[in-house]
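Troubleshooting log. The previous run stalled partway through. Resubmitting the same two chains, unchanged.
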Amino acid sequence: MNLDDLPVVSQVFESGADDRVFDSLLLLGPVVIVLIVLLGRSLLTAVLAVFYLGVFCGYVVYRGATFGS
Amino acid sequence: MSGAAATIGRDVGRILEALGGLMIVSVLVTLAWGEYFALPALLVSAVVPLGIGRFLYRRYRSADAPGRLHGMIVAAAGWLFVGLFGSLPFLLVAWSVELGVPIVSTPQQTATLAAFTNPLNAIFESMSGFTGTGLTMTDDESALPRTLQWWRTFSEWVGGVGVIVLTTAILSRPGSGSLTLYESEARSEKIHPSVVSTVRTIWWIFILFTFGAILTLWLAGMPIWGAINHAMTGLSTGGFSITDNSIATYDSVAIDFALIPIMLLGSIAFPVHYLILQGDLRNFYSDLQTRWVFLYMSTGSALLWGLLYFAGPYETPFAALRYGLFQFVSAATCTGFQTAVDATNVAIGRWPSYAQLTVTFGMFVGGAAGSTVGGIKIIRGLTLAKGIRYQISEVFYPESAVRRLVINGRRLNDEASSREFMEAAIVFVLWVTFLVVGTFVLLLALPADDYTLPNVFFEVASAQGNVGLSSGITGPDSLPTIGKVTFLFHMWIGRLEIIPVLVMLRTVFQRGGLYA
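Second attempt completed without errors. Output:
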């Protein structure tokens, strides 16, 4: 079975910026938030949140730097 | 029913169906927090719009696609009904607690929740939420059940992008009509050739940014429930809070500064966000509206900082910067989060008049068209400014001269520039007219000497600009009934940029024989 065939995943892949990194961030967002809700504020959840935001911001900059090339 | 009424009935029915769906989704929050006393109220609230919407849609399913007139009436009527039916959770949960729910334990009634047993207060809260205004009928938001805290937040989050955009995204149907409805909700720019694809991308961007905003606020120190709610209302530039003193409750420099980029994201047009995510970062400065969002916010904040520090209430440059920058961005993005309250420093209502008027000007203009903000929008302000300059300079050119008005890279000829200038001028004149009329009504309705003219002007501009900052007038007891009705109207026309509401009222009066 292909990932694209799953109901929510297929809609996320079809919409948006047509980029698998951003699509993955969109799908992982609720997972990170649920983990924070369940585990509370800890080093692990803080690192996860920083990592998520770091990937998002870093990837925007990367896309900008490589735009048109 | 005539063809036009069937078309309108069918599309309003779709919007009501979507509203019912939002209420059903919210049941998850009720269950998660174990607020079982709110469950019957929320389910009944969902069934009513869902049932009416389903009936209208099935009855008029084969009606014609909407034209421009229908689209405007659907937008105006849709937002009005969403405001009305969206009040049901407030009303029914408040009455559930007032009367008690059998079998499950019901909490003690609070003065804050009891205010919603008055239907007008419930409608006010709902309309304020969906229009992204943020003025509230609650005395203490933290005393509300989590279900209602969530419903307030959710209504702003959905309303920020637009209920019609939501309806188009999830209940899209093949064929024409979607574009007309999309444009009737004060939107024009498209990301993709297909409207359905465009609105789905808008939601994709909005949801992704919401996750980012939640994590940013949580890292800044906000508890996760607060981060979820404030990220949603901050990004949608709505401004509802779940705490008694808005963002001032946290009294945290990190949270104040973390919210500024979130509010700014909400005031940039979605097509620009899309291009930036594609890697075209030049849009930060090459897009006229985005460039001006930053220029305008920087200039306004610097001015307010100067006024607050050199002639105002704050003693240190940093305090003036912290509160001035946050409040100007909050006003100009039409968010309405408040950090300047008496509990932590000096409330906006007690700022010097010139500082209040500076914030009022911020609310008046707003952010970029195509974003989640209110106000007259930056592009209209620029069109008016450039148009006035163009008209005046015409005298200095020979009649044979061929001139072009350049707006956002588009070179407009005489006819096109006149049309765009006229459209912007009409909205501007209507905006100011309703602002002045509303100020008069409030001055008559409020007890004499309780509020100053800047206070009243500020509050009316806040309602009409869908901002939500308050100089202390809005409240379940402080605002008289006539004031609540006036503000309901202002929030409604402000969200739709006035004209669709006037078109709907003209049509209703014409059909009713009240208008020749």
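Takeaways: Residues 43-65 of chain A form the longest helix (23 residues). The two ends of chain A are 34 Å apart (CA to CA).
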